[in-house]
Design brief:
Layout lengths: L1 H23 L4 H13 L8 H19 L12 H22 L3 H15 L2 H4 L12
Helix pairs in contact: 3-4
């Protein structure tokens, strides 16, 4: 019974976090279309191929990482939130462009990845643990 109670509490906490995240983490179809329109208005699609877009994603991700370089114990870098927003937007823009170039539905590929991760990281084994799925016990 204690295991069931723990699982129910975990599910409730997860659902509450999900509600909060849904309010914060959303991207509309209009936003995606705006990114693609920006590219198309400049005739840049001709330069976009998976290799160069993957490189661009990595470069922008490195710029995001640079925000945290030498931050010491300040792992949240609240005073640098504007820079974090800017660099994260660059990463997301290139991800949109990569998905479009490869003909991938972002919603579909993310949902599929979440399902796969749920199999690799079941709540009862992974809750509160940071280990890779191969190192989970239970």
């Amino acid at each position: 019974m204690p295991c069931l109670l723990h699982t129910l509490k975990t599910v409730c906490l997860f659902e509450k976090r999900l509600e909060i995240q849904k309010a914060r983490c959303k991207m509309t179809k209009e936003t995606i279309e705006q990114v693609l329109k920006f590219r198309d208005e400049r005739n840049w699609k001709q330069f976009h191929n998976p290799k160069d877009l993957a490189i661009s994603i990595c470069l922008e991700a490195a710029e995001l990482l640079e925000v945290f370089q030498w931050s010491g114990d300040d792992v949240w870098c609240e005073e640098k939130k504007d820079k974090i927003r800017e660099e994260l937007a660059d990463v997301l823009n290139y991800c949109i462009l990569m998905a479009d170039t490869c003909g991938l539905d972002m919603d579909e590929i993310i949902q599929e990845k979440v399902r796969k991760n749920a199999e690799k990281y079941p709540v009862e084994k992974a809750y509160g643990h940071k280990e890779k799925y191969t190192g989970l016990r239970g």
